[in-house]
Structures are given as C-alpha cells and as structure tokens.
Design brief:
heterotrimer, A alpha/beta (about 425), B alpha/beta (about 575), C mainly beta (about 250), A: about 425 residues, alpha/beta, Rossmann fold, Dimethylsulfoxide Reductase, domain 2, 18 helices, B: alpha/beta
C-alpha cells in the first residue's frame, strides 16, 4: 500500500493540490480531500469503460489494430491533408500540448483548444484591455468583497470557495466567510447565489449594460444612468457600486455566463476596465473560472511557443491567429478541414450539428482514455493513459500557476505525450520518404 | 572530441586586456584551450572583430513576457527590424518565429544568437510561478540561462527582518533560490509589491510597508547582508523605489549610498542597480521633468561598490513588464493602455503595459537621452551593463542600433535633430562627445557581466572558458564607427559566426544549429538547525496562507535543462 | 485600360488566400504571368491559374487596371489586400478580409462579404451591394486602430462590431447592423440607416448617426438636446463618459 500526498486533482481549473491518494496493487483504493467531481475523476477509471486498444475504422467498423498500425494510419492522414484541424488538448499535460503544437507546425495544421467553446472570449478581452488579475491566494488572504458573475462554483468548482474564496481564511481575512461580503450576479438564482449575502439578478445577455452602468457611476457620471439597467433598479446598482468602492479588496470571479452571453468578449473587456476604474478607489482584480483543468495551460504553452493562446493556423509555416476565422468551429462550420486530430475533448458531443456533420465526413484521429461520441466519428483511435493519474505532467491553475501532476498508478496505455511523439516521428519519416 | 581553430581573429577581450589584437583561438570539446591538433576544423576569421559571446544580464525573456504576448497578439506581425522580428516560417533547422517585443521562445533564442549573444539572465522570477519560467527556458534554444528570484515584498522576508532573525532570513532566501532554481536576489520596488496588495505604494526608502512594520531601506540592507552571508555569485539586483517618477534620481542615489557600508564576502559589486534610465529623472512633475543622469553618474563615478545597467529606450513600440505593480497601473491609466496585473500571494506583484516611445514626445526623447547619458558620463565601463531592459525600453533586437548611439556622436546628433527644443533643454546629451570603442562596448556587453555574475567561464576568451564566441563582419582599424555606423549596425545585427560551446550556431547571420542551453542555479548551503527552524515557519505559511502545498511549490529537476548547480557555503 | 476577368474553375472549401491578387500585382502582366502567381491554399502554395481561368484585355498602369471576379468567390480571402489603386469588381459573394489594409482604388462587391471587410484600410472605397458579416472596417486582434481612412458603403445589413477601433474614414450602412457598432470609435464617422444595438461603446471621438431604432443604448452617454441634420431631427448624445469621450452619437427622434 502506498499513500501519495499532495497529489494534484486533474478535474477542474481549481487544480487542488492537497489530495491524498492510497494505492494498493496498482489500484486507487482511497481518495482524501477531493470534491465529488475530483473523486469521480480518480475513481472514474474503475467505473467507465476504457478504450482498450488502438483502433482503425475498416468498412465502417472500428477494429483493433497494433499501435504501430494506428500510428502509420494516423500519420498518413496528416501527411495527405491540406488543412488539418488539431483540437482539444485541455485535459492533458503541457508537455503534450507542446508536442501537439510542434506536430501542428510540421504539418501546417490549425491547432485550437476547448477554449473555443468556453473561455476563448476571455483571451480576446485581455487582448483589448489586458487582464488585471492575481493568484488565488491574494483573494484568500485579502479579499473582503467577492463577486461571482455568471459562474456557479458550487457545482463547477466545488472546493473553490473553501480553498480560495468565500469560506477561506487568510492573514487579513481571519474571520473567513463572516468577514467577507459575497455577491452573486446571474440570470437565475443558482446554488452559489443561495449562499451569497447579496444576489443581483440580471436580464439574460445584458452583462455589458450593467458593467457599463457600474463604470459610469464609479467614474462620476451616475447622472447618465436610467432608472433600470439590465433589469436592475438604479438604486440597487448604486448600492452595489458603493459596496465595491468601499471594499478593501475586491475580486470578481467570472464564468461562462459572462464569456458566452450576448456580447461575449466585450463583457470581459468592459469588466477589465471596471477593475481598472475600481482601482482608483480600492484594490480590485478579476479571475476567470476556467473549466477544464488545463485549459489555462494550453493557452500558456501555445502563447510562449507560437505567440498566441489558441486558434493558431500554421498553414504558411508560421503562426497566424484570428478567432472567428481560425477557431475550431469556424473551420468546421465552413467545412474547411480535410482531416482532424482530436485529443482529450469531445466535439462530437459539444459542437454544433453542422460542425459535427463535417467531422463525420473527414478522417478523424482521436486520442483519449475513454470512448465518447467523438469515437463514433473517428477513423483512428488511440487509447491513452489518464494524465494526472496514470501519467505525470504540468498543468496550469485558473490563475496561471503551474503545478506538477503526479503519476499515481501504472498503466498499460501510452501517454498522450508518447503518442504525439511517435506520431510526429512517423510523419517526419513519411515526409522524408515523399 | 571536436576541435576548432579560429584563425586571424581580431580579438577584443577586455577580461584579458586584449584590445583588437589579431590572434588564433583554439577550441576543444566546447572550451577554449591553449592549442589544438592539426585535425581541428579551421574557421578563418579574416581579421574580423571577435568577442566572447554576448551576455544579457537583465532581460524579460521567460515568464512574465508571456502575459505580454498574450495581451498583444498584434505584436506577432510587427517587423521593424527585418531579420530579427516578425513572422518567419519554420525551416528544417528552426521552429516558426513571430513577434518583435514579445517574440515566441524560439525566436528569442535564435535572435539573441544572431546578435552574437549566448547567455541571458531573466530579470524576475516570482517564486510561486518559477516553474513557469523554467518551462519557457526549456523552449528557448541555444542560450545559457539564469534568472533572479524576487524577494523584495515577501512576507516571510519582511517578518524575519521585522523580528530581527538574520540567520533564518538567510536560510529562507537560500531555500527560495532552491525552490525557484534562481541565481540571485532580485528586489523590485522594495515593499511596494506588498503595498500594491492594497492598491497602494511605498513612497521612498523610509516609508514603512503597510502591516509589516519594515521599511524599504531595511529590506534592502537585510537582503544585501543575506547576499553576502550566503556568498551568492551575484549581488542583490535592485529595481529602486519610485521608478518612473520625476525626481526619483534622489531615491536612486540614496539607495546606492545605503550599500556603501556592505562588507563583501566575495570579489564582486555589493549592489547592482537595474535599468537606471527609469530611475534617473529630475524635476518634480512631468511638466518640468528633466534628466537626472548627471547627478547619478556623478555619484557612480565616485563610488566603487556598485554596477548598473541602462534600460536604454528605443523609439517605437515597447512593452513594459515589471514586478512593480503600482507603476504598471499608473502607466496604464496615464497612457490609456491595456493593463495586465498579476499579484503573487505572499510574495510580490507584477504588471504588463504596452507603450510607444515617440521622438516627438519630449518625455520620451529625454528618456532616450538619459540612458545614453548614463553610459557616457560614467567613466568606468566596468560599472556599466548595456541593456534596454528588454522589452521595457525596447526589444533586444535593437541592441545593434543602440550600439551605434554609443559609438557615434554623429549618429546621436542625427536622432537628436528630430527633438523639440523643450526636449533639448531637459537633457545634457548634445554636449557629450564621448564615443565608445569596441573594447568599451565589449566590456558593457560581456566582460562586466562575467564579473558581476561571477561566471569566470563566460564573457571572455581565456583558456578554460566556454567557447561561446561571436565573430562580427567588421575589420577593426579599417572602420570608423563614428562615421560608419550603418556598417557597425549591420555587422552586429547578424554575426558572421556565433559559436556556443564550440558549436557553430550562427553563420553569416543565419541559424546553423540549435543546441540546448544550460540553466544555472544557486544552491546556498545553510546549517541544518537554522534551516529546520526556518522550515517550521514556512510550514505555517503554507498551511495557513499559500494556496499550494510546499511539496508542489518546489521546481522539480525535470524542468531544468542541462542544469548547472552553483554551490555556495553560507557563513553562519 | 487593362481588364482582367477571373473565373473560378471549381467551387472550393479550403479558402484560397488572395493577398497578392490586386491591381498592383496584375497591372502590366499577361495572362500567363498572372496564372503563375503563387497563392496559398491550405498548407501549400499553388499557381493562381490552377484555380482560376484568366482573361486579360489590354495592358495598363495600376490606376487603370480592373479585376473582375465573375461569380462566387466566397472562399477566396484577402482579395484586394493592400491595393493602392485600380478597381476590383466582384460579381458574387466574397470571403473574409476583402480590401484589408487597402490604400486606394475601389472595390465593388455585387454579393455578400464575409467578416473583416475593409479591415485597417487607410484610403480608397468599398461598395458592397449585399450584406456584410462581422468586423467591417475594424482592426486586427489587439490593435488599437482599425480603419483609418477611405469609405465603405454597405447597401445591405452588417453584423456585429462594425467599425471596431475605427480611427478615421467613413462607413455607411443602408440596412441594419448587429451588436456594438462603432465600438471604441476614435475619430471615424459611421452612418447607419437601419437599426443598431448598443452603439458606440467606449467611443473616444468621431460621429455615429443612427436613423433606425436603437436597442440597449449603453448607460454611458449624456443626452444634450437635439440637432437637425439635413432636415432630420436627432437626439444628441455625447460620450462615452467612461473614456472621457467627446464622440457624438445622433439617434433619430421618433
């Protein structure tokens, strides 16, 4: 029996690193400190079917093949494609992302992450206004006003409030929850909202109007505010502004309720400005509640290796970036890709129908520990070790702090990193041959 | 066993006192040696200028620069220095490149190498985010790297100072360097990072840090003493309080004076003051802003305990990035620019703001002049390290352009002729006719660094040193840098040869090979009882205040590419 | 006059990148020379003639060169990029970045245009006889300045972010526009004859005139009475107050 302490949970962007895992006979038998989601990830391998062997689609059916055969088939697909989409890469390690970027570069592909359908707009808003942020410990130790905007950590990031925000205690926040004001802004009264001191309900898609109203008041132009904005009475907005201005340290945590609502990245853009304006009066920062455990890591690695955080088109041999043009969905809806490689993601389940229909028409390579709807579309399938449990590697928390994920048990499956390396080698070999 | 013989090199190696003398250089197994066999591969330098590989002792090239890239995708396509900027497709030898001020990691390695540079020092590593810095280091090809770890607003540091625990403080710093795999102590706006945790700043050396009851001066002195106690290879590396504010030259001189009393434990400076251009401002507001360089240079000329670097401004777009959080916020508000901020729990702050230096702006023109004034008014080049604080003052790819300013009064006059009278009234540069020669330039770009960082195998061409060598397409004696600055710039923009550990990495300005570089880090030994006592204190920090566990805080060996551990023995 | 007629041989899905397909690069060239121009298609470069039949009439200077795309080119990007003079006529739909960075000359599109029409143009004219998609006259990601000069006329509708970061020039839309037209306007003039939603967010300077209905006017504008322009009475708004803006937003009084 081995007890492994300080394991990093590879579920959500909170990346809790205090998990204790007991391993007996290469099986995880006990998990301590994890939340229900994290727990399900650690025990998931026992409960879910795995992809058992590499597979290739022959006559419409996926049949088991050797690993080498699958690598050869996948490499041929990549070498022959004029426009390949490489997608996913957010539930895997930074080392894998690095390999995937190099493969995309060498094959002139477009590589994009799952941020395409979640926090991609957060990057776009940072490109407009910057990203006034802090590490989570700053919130834990200092924040006396915490605002959750369009996010629901009770369900999506269950330990967030205990470890980093509302309920945590720190040097200047010894009273924990009692010493903090917790505000939730959302379109419906979520379970997180039920825990708040103040809940503000706003009309769907009107985040930008409310952010703008807050800014106008903070900047001394309260006179331009009409009687209600975003369905919120002016008096309530004034009260909210006062709470923010009088705080010692404000943090706004924002989620997909903000990034995917009507005016998308312009919401985050305006929120950055709100934070800047608030700093004229107090201290304020904002942090995006990133979902997949390493979606932040993809953005980091891609940015240092290519200059861009996502949606990177290597067609001309150098990176080109333009979400709206080079994003995974942009390409699929336009039926551009001639092939796709998808790892640690499930566009088959999460993309719009038109995109999925195109995926069904083109050769698709999948790398994943578990079968999912994308497997049904795939032509070459690689089973992979589960990163953070069966494979080690780096991941980035939602506040851009990187942590080393441990390998807890052995696996018969190759890691994502190894698969990408072998595939890249084979692609080079085929290209040399050609 | 590989051998190279560089024949007919016009060697400029100030460490050995060699000033453009024609000689041969022998290389064996990556080191410079006295002689090689007749089997050696021969490079005929044909009388061209030959120096040790350049060493950038203060650059933002890994870590925070990623925020700069992230918020400025528009930097990727900027190409003001063709060959050293912009989008470049991958080749069989090189990865794809993008950017100008914030190039991707591969471009950083290739472009420094093209300039004949072979070693860089990342200016700021936040301890908690150190893993990230090393991840980027791994992807910067060719160059040897090191980084300075931030201690200037650290809770544990300030508490030990307040509680007068110098030994535990030393143990903590040693541990922090080990945790972050850092090379030395960086202090940015001492105390200001903590104040910024509340949206405030400290106003000077004696303004106490909120809640911690220590002053910036105490932080500086205590860390300087730790630096000597641990016998660290570099001195404390200080970004002074009040950066970017008119009148701050007084704080800078005051800071320098504090260090006069530091007793050295090894042969190097007691203090390095960084990007002094940003800290040599006179006047009391932006309206009566003027150069403070003469006062600073005056003090430096009379002092022998310090070195400094320039932070030279290059006109055009730049990206400021610093652990000085309040400065970046002020920049963003003043310039109506994008603002990124990243405060690091228990440790420090940081910010990133893009900006544009225009020769038409009198402030920018004076800033440009101040960097050069500092370089030219300080008589001893061994006290000066050339930097642009890349990319704060401008991208490092502009070094060759900046060299022409240092080497040619005529070239300076050309730039100055575009300035307003108001700008000219606020600077002293037009009255300075000093022009550096290759020898002095070599000091400021490699020799000083060798001494400053105690890396005797770097920045010189002595037998036993690393065979990091740059050959530039200039024949000393046949060129007058004072008038032929176009040729000088061209030669320094693409080395005829750059050798890294005896391997040709650049030939005729193009990348030939992309070996991996080393990582230098310092392991300072501390007696175990003191270390244990300190560990108990930080265990509390991790249990109560940090959001990561101590075990996951330490940068693991796997992140270090070709690590070189520099061991020191602390005095307790 | 030199007229170059271009016929796409076969409809394509992977876009052809026509960033060098403009009068500057065609003037004085023969049919064969034009066919030999390399264009990007996916991850490879191919002769333009692989995709297009080319007919050249006459031979003349850039100013007197006209390109005519006959039929749909909805997968040909960057037509007219950086053109300095001459004319391009497109008789069909056109793909993204048409007229990107245009410095002069004229583009007429008899069809719809995909996103980034006239992005970062500094001069010249674009007339779109159809609908436009997103980001007409805007800037590249992260850039502070989009369109700086010239004129874009859209005789149909346009989608979101029309004129984002515009620093000069003029855009006229006869139909409706989507979300956030004139966002971060810094000196441009935008006239919208139809409806608009959340116009002129963070406008620093410039003029925005909306003749149709405005939804969700942002709470960052001061109303300053009315003004009459060409016989029409408009409510006058000044802002955006959050950027200390002096921009003028005129909304037709109903």
């Amino acid at each position: 029996m081995t007890v492994i302490k300080d394991a990093v949970c590879s579920f959500c962007g909170s990346l809790c690193d205090d998990i204790t895992v007991t391993v007996e006979n290469n099986k995880i038998t006990k998990i301590e400190n994890a939340c229900i989601l994290g727990h399900s990830k650690f025990v998931g391998m026992l409960e879910h079917d795995r992809i058992e062997t590499p597979m290739i689609r022959k006559d419409g059916e996926l049949v088991s093949v050797s690993y080498e055969e699958a690598i050869e088939a996948a490499a041929k697909i990549l070498v022959n494609s004029k426009r390949t989409l490489s997608y996913g890469w957010c539930s895997t390690s930074c080392e894998t992302v690095s390999g995937a970027i190099q493969l995309a570069e060498e094959t002139g592909s477009v590589i994009d992450s799952t941020a395409n359908v979640c926090h991609g707009p957060t990057a776009l808003s940072a490109q407009e206004k910057g990203s006034p942020s802090a590490t989570l410990g700053e919130i834990k130790n200092r924040a006396d006003v915490i605002l959750f905007w369009g996010c629901n950590p009770v369900h999506a990031h269950p330990r967030h409030m205990a470890r980093y925000s509302s309920f945590s205690k720190g040097l200047f926040t010894e009273k924990g929850r009692r010493g903090r004001k917790m505000i939730v802004l959302d379109v419906r009264k979520t379970d997180t909202a039920k825990l708040a001191d103040k809940y503000v309900e706003i009309e769907q898609g009107s985040d930008l109007l409310l952010v703008t109203a807050l800014r106008s008041i903070i900047n001394g132009h309260g006179d331009v505010i009409p009687e209600t904005v975003a369905g919120v009475p002016k008096a309530e907005i004034l009260e909210l502004t006062e709470t923010l201005e009088n705080a010692k340290f404000v943090c706004i945590f924002f989620g997909m309720g903000v990034t995917q609502s009507r005016s998308k990245y312009k919401n985050g853009d305006a929120m950055s400005s709100l934070i800047s304006d608030l700093n004229q009066h107090t201290k304020a920062v904002m942090i995006g509640m990133r979902g997949h455990y390493n979606v932040t890591g993809f953005g980091q690695v891609a940015t240092w290796e290519t200059g861009f955080p996502m949606a990177i088109d290597f067609a001309r041999g150098y990176p080109y970036y333009n979400p709206g043009e080079t994003g995974a969905n942009d390409l699929l809806v336009r039926e551009e890709p001639g092939a796709a490689i998808i790892a640690a993601a499930d566009p088959g389940a999460h993309f719009p129908q038109k995109a999925v229909r195109h995926l069904a028409r083109i050769p698709v390579i999948q790398i994943d520990p578990y079968p999912n709807p994308t497997t049904e579309l795939a032509d070459v399938v690689f089973p992979a070790a589960v990163v953070g449990i069966e494979a080690e590697g780096t991941a980035y928390r939602m506040d851009a702090i990187s942590l080393r994920m441990k390998k807890l048990i052995d696996s018969k499956f190759k890691t994502d990193e190894e698969i990408i390396k072998d595939l890249t080698e084979k692609v080079r070999e085929l290209k040399r041959g050609a | 066993m590989s051998e190279i013989l560089i024949k007919n090199a016009s060697v400029c190696d100030p460490v050995q006192g060699i000033n453009c003398e024609t000689m041969d250089i022998c290389i064996k197994d990556g080191k410079i040696v006295e002689s090689v066999s007749s089997n050696a591969k021969v490079i005929d330098a044909e009388g061209r200028l030959t120096m040790a590989g350049g060493f950038d002792g203060h650059t933002h090239s890994a870590g925070k620069i990623n925020v700069g890239r992230f918020i400025n995708p528009n930097d990727a396509r900027k190409n003001p220095v063709p060959g050293l900027s912009g989008q470049v497709a991958r080749t069989e030898k090189t990865r794809a490149q993008v950017g100008y001020n914030t190039p991707n990691t591969y471009a950083i390695g290739y472009r420094y190498a093209k300039l004949g540079y072979t070693t860089i020092c990342e200016a700021a590593i936040p301890l908690l985010a150190a893993r990230h810095t090393h991840e980027e280091f791994k992807e910067i090809p060719i160059l040897d790297k090191m980084g300075l770890s931030l201690f200037g607003s650290n809770w544990q540091v300030m508490e030990y100072i307040r509680d007068k625990e110098p030994e535990k403080l030393a143990a903590y710093v040693a541990w922090g360097l080990r945790a972050s795999r850092g090379y030395g102590i960086k202090i940015v706006n001492p105390g200001g990072g903590e104040a910024w945790g509340w949206g405030k700043n400290v106003s000077g050396l004696y303004d106490p840090v909120p809640n911690f009851d220590v002053t910036p001066a105490e932080i500086l002195m205590s860390l300087a003493e730790v630096n000597e106690r641990l016998k660290l290879p570099h001195s404390v590396h200080v970004h002074c309080n009040n950066l970017g504010k008119p009148g701050n030259y007084a704080t800078t001189i005051e800071t320098m004076k504090l260090f006069e009393k530091i007793k050295l434990s090894r042969d190097r400076q007691a203090l390095h003051v960084t990007h002094v251009q940003f800290n040599a401002y006179a006047g009391t507001s932006w309206r009566n802003f003027e150069t403070g360089a003469p006062m600073v240079a005056d003090y430096v000329n009379g002092a022998d305990h310090l070195t400094f670097d320039l932070g030279q401004v290059i006109f055009g777009p730049a990206v400021t990035m610093t652990a000085d959080g309040p400065v970046e916020y002020a920049n963003a508000r003043m310039l109506h620019e994008k603002w990124s901020n990243q405060d690091v729990e228990l440790e420090d702050a940081s910010g990133v703001v893009p900006l544009f230096y225009s020769p038409k702006s009198f402030v920018n023109a004076v800033q440009w002049a101040i960097g050069l004034e500092l370089a030219l008014l300080v008589k001893d080049p061994w006290k000066v390290m050339f930097t642009t604080d890349s990319p704060n003052g401008g991208s490092f790819v502009n070094y060759p352009e900046a060299f022409t300013y240092l080497m040619s009064a005529k070239r300076r006059e050309e730039v100055i002729s575009g300035f307003s009278n108001m700008a000219l009234d606020r600077m002293v540069l037009p009255g300075i006719d000093r022009e550096l020669d290759f020898y002095e330039l070599a000091i400021m770009t490699r020799s000083t660094q060798s001494k400053m960082y105690s890396r005797p195998e770097k920045g010189n061409l002595k037998a036993g040193s690393d065979a990091d060598i740059a050959i530039y397409d200039i024949i000393p004696g046949q060129i007058d840098p004072s008038t032929e600055y176009v040729k000088v710039k061209k030669a320094f923009s693409g080395a005829a040869y750059t050798l890294k550990d005896g391997e040709i990495v650049v030939k005729d300005g193009e990348i030939e090979a992309t070996p991996k570089g080393r990582i230098y880090w310092v392991n300072a030994k501390v007696p175990s009882p003191i270390d244990s006592a300190m560990q108990k204190d930080i265990d509390i920090k991790f249990r109560k205040y940090y959001t990561v566990s101590k075990a996951n805080y330490m940068v693991e060996d796997v992140y270090l590419q070709k690590p070189v551990e520099i061991a020191t023995e602390g005095v307790f | 006059m030199q007229v170059v007629k271009l016929f796409l041989k076969e409809a394509n899905k992977i876009p052809i990148e026509a960033d060098n397909i403009n009068p500057d690069n065609f003037a004085g060239k023969t049919e064969e020379e034009i066919k030999a121009i390399l264009v990007w298609y996916g991850n490879g470069q191919y002769p333009f003639g692989d995709f297009f039949n080319v007919e050249v009439e006459g031979r003349d200077s850039v100013e007197n060169t006209k390109l005519v795309f006959e039929g749909d080119v909805s997968r040909v990007k960057r037509i007219g990029q950086n053109m300095s003079a001459g004319e391009i006529e497109i008789n069909g739909n056109v793909d993204m970045h048409c007229g990107f960075g245009m410095k002069g000359g004229k583009i007429i599109i008899n069809g719809n245009a995909d996103s980034w029409l006239g992005c970062e143009m500094t001069d010249g004219e674009i007339i779109l006889n159809g609908n436009a998609s997103y980001y007409v006259g805007s800037g590249y990601r992260g850039e502070a300045c989009g369109m700086r000069g010239g004129k874009i006329t859209i005789n149909g509708n346009a989608r979101d972010y029309l004129g984002e970061h515009m620093c000069g020039g003029e855009i006229l839309v006869k139909g409706n526009v989507g979300l956030l037209p004139a966002i971060s306007n810094n000196g441009g003039k935008i006239v919208i004859e139809g409806n608009a939603t959340m116009p002129a967010n963070e406008m620093k300077s410039g003029t925005v005139i909306i003749k149709g209905e405005v939804s969700d006017l942002l709470p960052s504008y001061k109303e300053e009475g009315t003004v009459e322009v060409e016989g029409v009475i408009y409510r006058k708004f000044v802002g955006d107050v959050n950027v200390g803006g002096k921009g003028v937003l005129l909304i037709k009084r109903t």
